[in-house]
Amino acid sequence: MYDNLISLGITNPKQIDRYSLRQEASNDILKIYFRKEKGEFFAKSVKFKYPRQRKTILANPGAEKSYKEVHEISPNLRYVIEELDQICQGEKIEVDIKQKILADLRHLEQVVTHKIAEIEADLEKLTHKDK
Fold it and tell me: What InterPro entries does the entry give (predicted)?
């Protein structure tokens, strides 16, 4: 399923926690962080260096044709990032749903607590009227 990550030597892509991408000179540096195991102080990570792809493009399509050189992300790196986004964003959505459910439960708890207090207050009023 994650062919590009597996081709990098990542045997268990589901253990990926997050990644970072930065540009350094004419290279892109991809760093992949894995989930910490119990007892570890730091998460394991691996680093990959991708040379930026150089292209010559037409800068001025008018009468005087001039060209300029541009550097862009490697197509291989683009495929790896797509797979990383699938893994990392899927987990983020899952965490967001969990947070929403917890927030809803807390809200429900408050509503029920307030309603119980209101009913108890009404009962207290009734017992004072009877005396």
Answer: UPF0325 (IPR020911)
